[in-house]
Design a protein that fits this description.
Layout: E1 2-3, E2 10-11, H1 25-28, E3 31-39, H2 44-63, E4 67-76, H3 87-97, E5 103-106, H4 109-112, H5 116-128, E6 133-135, E7 140-141, H6 147-178, E8 192-194, E9 200-202, H7 204-218, H8 223-232, H9 246-254, E10 262-264, E11 267-269, E12 277-279, E13 287-289, H10 299-314, E14 340-342, E15 349-356, E16 359-366, H11 367-372, E17 383-384, H12 385-402, H13 407-419, H14 423-444, H15 448-451, H16 454-478, H17 481-499, H18 508-514, E18 515-520, E19 525-530, E20 535-539
Parallel strand pairs: 3-4, 3-5, 5-6, 14-18
Antiparallel strand pairs: 1-2, 6-7, 8-9, 10-13, 11-12, 15-16, 16-17, 18-19, 19-20
Helix pairs in contact: 5-6, 8-9, 13-17, 14-16
Amino acid sequence: MNACAQTGRKVTVIPPIAEMQGESRIDMRPKRVAAYCRVSTDREEQEHSFETQKAMYTEMIMMKPTWQMAGIYADEGITGTVAKKRPGFMKMIEDCRKGKIDMIVTKSVSRFSRNNLDCLMYVRELKQLGIPIIFEKEGINTIQVSSELLLTLFGALSQAESESISMNVKLGIRQSLKNGNVRFSYKTFLGYRKGADGQPEIVPEQADIVRRIYNDFLAGATYLEIAKRLTEEHVPTMGGGNRWFSERIKSILKNEKYKGDALLQKTYITDPISKRVKKNNGELPMYYVENSHPAIIERRIFDRVQEEIARRAGKKKVKQTGTKTELGRYSGKYALTELLYCGECGTPYRRCTWSRDGKKKIVWRCVSRLDYGKKYCKNSPSVEESRLHNAIAAAITKKANSEEINIGGIMNHIESFGSRRDTDGIIQRQRRIAEIEKVIDDLARLNSDEAQSGELDYKFSELYAELYSVKDELEEMQSDAVTLDGDMLNEMREVITGLKNHPVEYDDKVVRQLIDCIKVMSADTIKICFKDGTVTEVLI
């Protein structure tokens, strides 16, 4: 007892309770010990190591009378840098939080985690729960005071090792891409499977689905409509389900692999720790490999689909000057939404529903008249949809039965295109492509230290970006108008031949294939411009 003479305060010392001799009550109960093991890859040679670790820890725990088996938690062939991607590890942590584990044993810090931040975070959490982790290789017990300093050092070394391995793998992959080696994710890629020779081969029944998607899109269907039809018909997806989504349809339509080519390094992993995947917007070089595997879709069909995608994307809803109604968004439902125009003011027509005396009637009306009455467009009529459809069907019937396609009109267009061809521009672009390719070859011959510099990677990305841009310009200048118009001509011939001597009913698909635009000239007359350049007036 201590006393303070000036204040009269007394301080009484309460001695600590003497430690129990031998084991405490808690120590008398066997510790529930769990083991965690992991192998870095899922290759066959690692499977034996994986099973060996599980057997070793099982024997270790069962041979100690003061330990009780709380489970073997394991992850096979899974990265050690992201804890949440390791289900076995996360299950162990959750069981610790539920009080089912008293101690954890693992081989080394690198087995537990290669992410220094993750390692310390989970060690501290378990330490607060009174759960030690024993790292056998390093001889660390996390309950000890000095353990965190040692863990920081060993964790940093493990993370650095992971980053080094990742860099070596990355360099190998990039060299493989540069050599034009194309990789397929067969489990998620519709239309192909790995052949006996290790190369991709076409799966006939899946290829039919891909061709159907392309044909439906060119016939006017939207992504959503195609997905809905496939779902309703229970067409199987690559995942084994039968529910299709519009984004999946869009991805199939834009993937160059279906025409037998491959664009490599579209995405890249930013770092080996977060493993965040980022779209390559020029940060790294990309490689385009032509004829790398068998094609499912003909090149001309694929190119037409890309043109149609661009055309529809360009028809976003916008407000034209002087109008209130939004215009332009592509509609796969009604062909006339993008084909029917006012002959007086040039404004598109829109489908409307009139309701009078309890009866509904579908009509098409000039948007200018809808918004401003007769202020800007004084005479444009409203046209009943049924009359409009009948007139268009009659025009197609007449063309199918008594008219020939205007081949002369097509040829005039081809000759006009040829006279406009910029020969000097083509030569300039051919020379520039040769210059860029030479610079790329020279840079590729630099020694490895220079080749790994970030500055050189940036230079490669700039050169490839310019190369692809100039090649696109050259391809556009050299585009074969004869081939494109020939395709269009053949398609029109096929459609019209099928309609000859048959009663023709209005069909949106046929209208899109044959007609370029329709103008409403009066309440009784429309003017139809067919894709072959012929124009005819039809009474409504």
